[in-house]
Amino acid sequence: MLNISGVHTFYGAIEALKGVSLEVETGEISTLIGSNGAGKSTLLMTICGSPRARWGKVLFEGRDITKMPTHEIVQLGIAQSPEGRRIFSRMTVYENLQMGAIRNTEDRFERNISRVFELFPRLKERRNQRGGTLSGGEQQMLAVGRALMSEPRMLLLDEPSLGLAPMVVKQIFEVIKQINQDDKVTVFLVEQNAFHALKLAHRGYVMVNGNITMSGTGQELLVNPEVRSAYLEGGH
Amino acid sequence: MAVETQVSSSEENGRPALDWQAIGRELFFTALVAFGLTFVLVGMQTADRGGELIIIPRFTDVVYAIVMLTLGRFGYIMLRYRRASFVLIASLAAFGLSFVLPFPSLFLETMCMVGGLLIALMAVVTLIRHRPGIDMRERDRAMDRAAARFQELSRFIGPILVVFAIILPFLPFMDRQYIDIATLLLMYIMLGWGLNIIVGLAGLLDLGYVAFYAIGAYSYALLAVSFDLSFWVCLPLAGVLAALGGYLLGFPVLRLRGDYFAIVTLGFGEIVRIILLNWYQFTGGPDGIGGIPRPSFFGIAEFLPASRDGITFAELFGIDFDPMHRLIFLYFLILALALLVNMVSLRLRKLPLGRAWEALREDDIASQSLGINRTNIKLAAFTISAAFGGFAGSFFATRQGFISPESFTFLESAIILAIVVLGGMGSQLGVVIATILLIGLPEVFRELEQYRMLAFGAGMVLIMLWRPRGLLAHRDPSILLHGRKGPGADRIEAEQKAAEATR
Ligand SMILES: Nc1ncnc2c1ncn2[C@@H]1O[C@H](COP(=O)(O)OP(=O)(O)O)[C@@H](O)[C@H]1O
Ligand SMILES: [Mg+2]
After folding, report:
1. Among A191-195, B56-60, B95-99, B422-426, whose mean pLDDT is lowest?
2. Which residues of chain B neighbour A94 with C-beta distances below 8 Å?
3. I need a labelling partner for B271 at 20 to 30 A (CA). Which of A61, A108, B136, B223 fits?
4. Considering CB atoms only, which of B363, B371, B486 is closest to A88?
5. Which one of A100, A132, A150 terminates a domain?
6. What is the DSSP letter of B207?
7. CA B246 to chain centre
8. Measuring from atom 25 of ligand 1, which residue has the nearest CA?
């Protein structure tokens, strides 16, 4: 579904991605793990065209989106829950969800919002509360819910577990699985929490310093000694 | 802070003991600051004597100022020690003395009067509440509540104000001067509402709004003077030209963010003014453009004592000619224009465009990831806002009958921006109140001459001290499910208050 080949992305003179190639298959959950500063977020942002890849190609369903403006890419059916959640803190939960559907036609709104409330009953309880006053976990739910409001075919998630209690992380990963299985949404998950991510994912990639160094099925990476020593042991 | 901790440790029949050393230190610093502030500004007057600039020392004034400020501070400190009755008597005495003592200037005398009253007022508050003043947190919360209540009421306040504005010119005390002031206020309100679209809704700091105002005014003047077109033709054309200016400027500028954006818009405002100043053949340069035709009564009748090739307003309605007719007509014209701007802004807010502006203002990366086309959305804000600035400019031109680049300086942009920011960004009613405070009060106190700007500055400082986010900065959710007070709404409000307080 998503084909990334030889992508180089720069911040000024700094090369954050040094020729990244990977593939996200339709209907699967793919995950990208790597330590802080590896370039994971940069890759997600590059898929959405901001910043843009200097060299290389990004194909979505066979279509070249490397040079497409961000808002057009999003309209192709890619939704993103960006790093740090970035919910609209002065808007209510309901308004945040409305913003997620801003590019959609009215008639699908009711269906989508009831699905989001089904996935996250917490959000339904809190729909009149301002985003900024939600707990971290609720904010993450809102960020995912907002992304789902556009009825995407592919969901990009940037570290949804960041800074959350283990219980909440479990809950969120459970919902990601549901979204993938029940709603047939392809998921590309970026995580530092390698254990949970690899357990959930069909396919995994490891990024170090702007390069993909390893790939395989989630299970393969989970038992791989290098991955274990670098990302799984000590703390997880 | 330090004083307060000492206060609670050594109480003396319910009142804290006086710590003379600390008081002395504080008074000394007060006097020092007062000296620093007044020595040059008050103490030296420049005068032009035979083409030569000389300095006249006014050291008596300085001494008076320092003594007054130090005494005022002393009263303030005594209030902290809860010697309220003493302070009340002393400050009232100072107030009384201000009429008797031979002050070197009227200004100092006024200061003594106002200061005495102010401190007396604080003493009364202390006496009633049994503790010094109101503390900051409490005051903030009280004002937040008042602002929220006020905004809730704005559904009623708005229509009431409109009705008031409509009957205003017919009230018995309205003479020529008051109509002029009211018209001026409405012009600034309209400009404030126009700029509010860029600053308050789209969240872009535009320091050059006056450029669109100028483009509108000059478009109107040039079209009307060179082609002899009527106001009703020129007005929309001027709006379109200003909008075009906004669109063209928007293209290169909207890529920039934050400070860079502000600086470039500032530059644009100056560029427009400088072009107007230097393109002599076209704009008349510093001489400006005069003889701009006045608007007719919708192209039907003229506001003239007699008309050769048409009928006059007075003839049309069979009444006696009165120069006030035109002024009242101008007043209603700007009222209608301002209300148009208001209605369009309020409507836009509810449309997807308005929601997108709001999202962009809160978080532009998130907005982008939701498929919002940032450039187009910002460009729309710029263009619409510029068109409204252009309308206001046309009105300005036709009202004055003469325009020159001098009317379109950076100060003008700054004043309009101050109105928007002080009113509470995005608040329509806030703009009205801020305009009345910033433009209306200095107009009313015109007799104070050079102290007018002082009043303007003091107003700004006070608002920034008390309401740093603006007078009516309070956002209501645009929709609430199950009405305004659903089950748990109180709890949610309380939670929000708590969360906002801890932030
Ligand atoms: N806006 C930016 N400007 C300059 N450098 C950046 C910017 N964002 C990220 N970087 C750099 O790019 C590299 C990759 O960052 P990032 O993609 O955020 O990593 P990750 O998400 O894996 O933690 C880091 O070295 C970081 O310092
Ligand atoms: Mg990251």
Report:
1. B422-426
2. 477, 479, 481
3. B223
4. B363
5. A150
6. S
7. 23
8. A37
With an 8 Å Cβ cutoff, is B366 touching chain A?
yes
Q: Which of A68, A88, A150 to mutate to test the interface with B (most CBs of B within 10 A)?
A: A88
Residue B465 pLDDT: 73
> From the CA of A13, which ligand is nearest?
1
Is residue A59 situated within a structural domain?
no
Please answer whether residues B27 and B74 qualify as being in contact, where contact means their C-beta atoms are separated by less than 8 angstroms. yes
| CB-based burial label for B292 (10 Å; 0-12, 13-18, 19+) | buried
Q: Is A84 in the pocket of ligand 1 (CB under 6 A)?
A: no
Of A88, A128, A133, the CB nearest to B499: A133
Say if B359 is an interface residue toward chain A (CB within 8 Å): yes
Q: Which of A150, A172, A195 is the last residue of a domain?
A: A150
Give the number of the ligand closest to the Cα of residue A15.
Answer: 1
Determine the structural domain holding residue A156 and report its residue range. 25-53+68-77+152-236
**For B432-458, how does the pLDDT look when each residue is reduced to its tens digit (9 = 90+)?**
988 988 888 777 766 666 666 676 777
Structural domain contains residue A138 = yes
- The answer to whether residue B8 scores a pLDDT higher than 60 is no
Spatial separation of the C-alpha atoms in residues A150 and B371, rounded to whole Å:
9
User: pTM, whole model, 2 decimals?
Assistant: 0.76
Q: What is the mean pLDDT of chain A?
A: 91
Residue A236 distance to chain B (closest CA, Å): 30
Q: Does the beta-carbon distance from B477 to A92 stay under 8 Å? A: yes
Option in A50, A71, A128 nearest B477 (CB): A128
User: Which pLDDT belongs to residue A213?
Assistant: 93
Same domain, A162 and A106: no
Instruction: Provide, rounded to the nearest whole percent, the portion of chain B with pLDDT above 70.
Output: 84
Contact (CB, 8 A) for B224 and B401: no
SS (H, E, C) chain A: CEEEEEEEEEECCEEEEEEEEEEECCCCEEEEECCCCCCHHHHHHHHCCCCCCCEEEEEECCEECCCCCHHHHHHCCEEEECCCCCCCCCCEHHHHHHHHCCCCCHHHHHHHHHHHHHHCHHHHHCCCCEHHHCCHHHHHHHHHHHHHCCCCCEEEEECCCCCCCHHHHHHHHHHHHHHHHHCCCEEEEEECCHHHHHHHCCEEEEEECCEEEEEEEHHHHHHCHHHHHHHHCCCC
Percent of chain B whose predicted confidence (pLDDT) is above 90? 26
Total number of domains in chain A: 2
Inspect the interface and report whether the beta carbons of A71 and B500 lie closer than 8 Å. no
Lowest mean pLDDT segment, chosen from A62-71, B56-65, B478-487:
B478-487
Reported ipTM: the value is: 0.87
The contact set of A with B (CB < 8 A) is 48, 50, 69-71, 74-75, 79-80, 82, 86-92, 94-95, 98-100, 102-103, 126-130, 132-133, 146-147, 150
Answer yes or no: do A71 and B368 touch at CB < 8 A.
yes
Tens of pLDDT, residue by residue over B42-81, are 788 878 877 788 888 888 888 988 998 899 999 888 888 8
Which tens digits make up the pLDDT trace of B286-341? 898 988 888 777 767 777 766 666 677 766 776 777 777 888 889 999 999 999 99
Domain B150-466 has CATH 3.40.50: no
The pLDDT score that the predictor gives to residue B13 is 55
Residues A181 and A136 in one domain: no
Nearest Cα residue to atom 7 of ligand 1: A11
